[in-house]
Amino acid sequence: MTDDGRGPIEAATADLAAWLAGAAGAAVPVGPPGDGGAADGLTVWPLELRPARQTQGSAGRQAYRFQVRHLLAAAGPAALPRLDRVLAAAVTAGEPEVLLEAGDPGLWRAFGVPPRPALLIDVPAQVARPASVAPPVLRPLRLRQVGMRRLDGRVVGPEEQPLAAMRVELAGTPYATHTDAAGRFRLDGVPHDPEQPGRPVRLRLVGRGHTHTAEVDPADTDLVIVCAPPAR
């Protein structure tokens, strides 16, 4: 919407009508040809919407751009000089874009009027996309460094049987290792937050055709993970 509450199509049509009045030397009413328009003059009517090339940028979401194609039709002998002045003004200024393609008989049958001299005029329009607003920061920004620690443990099966060659992954990170012949593993890169010392760490264990997950206490100095096969 524009500042005065008009939509983009309405605004584009009103701007074109104002420009046409100056170029033709007389007011140009907005309305379909033959529908109560000027008996001897020009009428302008939005005919269709056409896509336009969209632009991209880094400064937020760009507006959606399109073109409003208008039909400028002449009615009566007095309209021809005005149509000439509009065509000359548009060609001289290089805008708006004018096309001499309004001779389709089906177009005039749709309006219920005989064919007449006319121009197609494309007017650019756009719909602004609201920018996302970041929520206000209500608290002071705190930055603290989270350290890393080493996690040692064992992976066993039922009856404390060591499980070798099990892949041990730190969930959500690229860190992983494998258990040795005694089922032991050592995993580096485990986050350590001094303000949350008891926060559990999620591990993913893959091997023996199964995948297990476990939440462990990284401060546990005698960490044992039991991987029992799923019940059948």
Automatic annotation (TrEMBL):
InterPro entries named among the record's database cross-references: CarboxyPept-like_regulatory
Superkingdom assignment: Bacteria
Name this protein carries in UniProt: Carboxypeptidase regulatory-like domain-containing protein
Organism: Micromonospora coxensis
